[in-house]
Amino acid sequence: MSENKRVLAEEVRAMAGTVGISLSADVAARIAGAVDPTITGFARVSDKLPFDVEPASFIVVQNGGRKS
Amino acid sequence: MSEPALLSLVAVADAIARKQVSSREVTQACLDRIAQWQPRLKAFIAIEPDEALAAADAADKALAKGGKLGALHGVPLAHKDMYYDAGKVVTCGSKIRRDWVASTTSTALQRLKDAGTVRLGTLQMAEFAYGPTGHNAHFGPVHNPWHLDHITGGSSSGSGAAVAARLTFAALGSDTGGSIRMPSNFCGVTGLKTTVGRVSRAGAMPLSHSLDTVGPLARTAEDCALLVGLMAGLDPADPTCSNSPVPDYMAATRGSLKGVRIGVPKSFYVDDLDSEIARVLDDTKATLTREGATIHQVDLPDQVALSDACQIVMIVEAAAFHQAWMIERPQDYGPQTMMRLQNGLAVPALTYLDALRWRGPALEAHLAATAGVDAVLAPVSPMAAPTIAESDVGNSPNAEPVLRRLTRFTRPINYLGLPSLSLPSGFTQSGLPVGMQVIGRPFDEAMLVRIGAAFQRATDFHARCPVLA
How far is A48 from chain B (nearest CA, A)? Predict the structure, then answer.
């Protein structure tokens, strides 16, 4: 998600609908307002993630970072 | 022995093993204190006096017969009500599981049972471990034993209150975004958030499978060392559990601070602190220095980004676990729990996966920034425990900022999967406890209990006990 892209209430309603959860417009707006700073903030990082990094790299680093 | 309930876990286990006090006497002492405090604290969900005394009697009989007994033989304990115990109700602090009976026993709990513990009952918690304050819409708030109108912190709210008031010698908590360290901090007890993968999560109610950790709240760092030593290690029932050897944590607690290098962050963890928290941080640095440690400034990577990534992983994974109940039983959640679960519906799949993909590089950057130190010292929270009234934000529009400020200093550590020991480090002028956390390298809990035990030999904050007015 781009740093400049905002979380929109109508998109939140649509995403929730795809997993069978219906949200009122008010609730969707509340959710969008609550998560927007987190998601747009993290976009500063995710936009720059290298291509060939996968989640299991965490375990590799964790084991490598263990104190000997 | 006049007040056996006031002993540490290590001391009471030793006293029972030496027959200086019986398990029945100790268990009765805890039950007496529970009867006095429970009406004020609401720390317990279930109290089982008859079963506890029967188990204590059986422990005393086994001790009289001789033979090899466990390290916690006859020691009464109660735990956060999210550890499955076959045949027992495990509410998870919820209405949805109010009558749910577990068919298995969690590995962590079973290992403590194998060491000989006696079950006192179960402890209060935030609904489904999803809240940092100690409020619970179904069971009511747990009250802080130091000031009854203040919060305990959560989500291991009952664990913090019960250990502080000497109702149990220790208690299991869980830490996904700060849930062991927050109540340890606000209630003045010692809590150890373990490295992700150090202690099996099998049979512990999940909140966020990438972030959940099991650990103890106890009276001393030595108590935490004993408990984690018993629980840690490979478990076939939890494939994410590490196969790395379990060090002798108790031996580590006997080490001094000579030669130990402690980092203090240049920013973030020292920004916008309430003045009394800043004073305790300075006092803690001075004590550690007096005991032989050296203090070094460290320049940590962007902690706000770590916090955002933690939040993304947690809210999505929590929503995934709860999806079916969110559809079928939305009315059975408390308003704040439902509000936080709904937030997970708004995160695109690619954002969630990016938050998981970044975890390795983020940990690598942290380890590089802290390569010159053995551990990092930071406050657990920028403030002391607020009142129950001022933190009762429910699902109001200002709820998220209030909750996020409380956990500002804990969430980045969960994202990195690091161990962190919360230590009672001082008190405010109004008598509320203040804790500092010592953050370690992956799987280096031994260094944390070494630092914690040395600090507690030089201070008495952990030994102070609240008095029932």
Answer: 10
For residue A37, what are the domain limits?
9-64
Total domains, chain A: 1
Q: State whether A16 and B244 contact (CB < 8 Å).
A: no
The ipTM (two decimal places) reads 0.94
Instruction: State how far Cα B350 lies from the chain centre.
Output: 32
Q: Tell whether B357 lies on the interface with A, counting CB pairs under 8 A.
A: yes
When scoring A46, A54, A68 by the number of chain B Cβ atoms within 10 A, the one with the most, hence best to mutate, is A46
- State the total domains in chain B: 1
Residue pLDDT, tens place only, B3-56: 999 999 999 999 999 999 999 999 999 999 999 999 999 999 999 999 999 999
Tens-place pLDDT, residues B148-207: 999 999 999 999 999 999 999 999 999 999 999 999 999 999 999 999 999 999 999 999
For residue A35, tell me if it sits in a domain.
yes
- The domain of B456 spans 4-463
Put simply, whether A57 touches B (Cβ < 8 Å) is yes
Residue B263 lies in a domain: yes
- Confidence at residue B340, expressed as pLDDT on a 0 to 100 scale: 95
Query: Domain holding B444: CATH number?
Result: 3.90.1300.10
Q: What is the mean pLDDT of residues B256-267?
A: 98
Please give the model's pTM, rounded to 2 decimal places.
Answer: 0.97
Residue A51 inside a domain? The answer is yes
pLDDT at A65: 63
Cβ of B358 within 8 Å of Cβ of A21? The answer is no
Catalytic-residue membership of B179: yes
Position A23 in a domain: yes
| Catalytic site includes residue B106 | no
| B449-466 pLDDT per residue, tens | 999 999 999 999 999 999
Is A14 part of a structural domain of the chain?
yes
Distance from CA of B154 to the nearest CA of A (A): 21
Vertex B93: Cα angle to B89 and B96 (nearest 5): 75
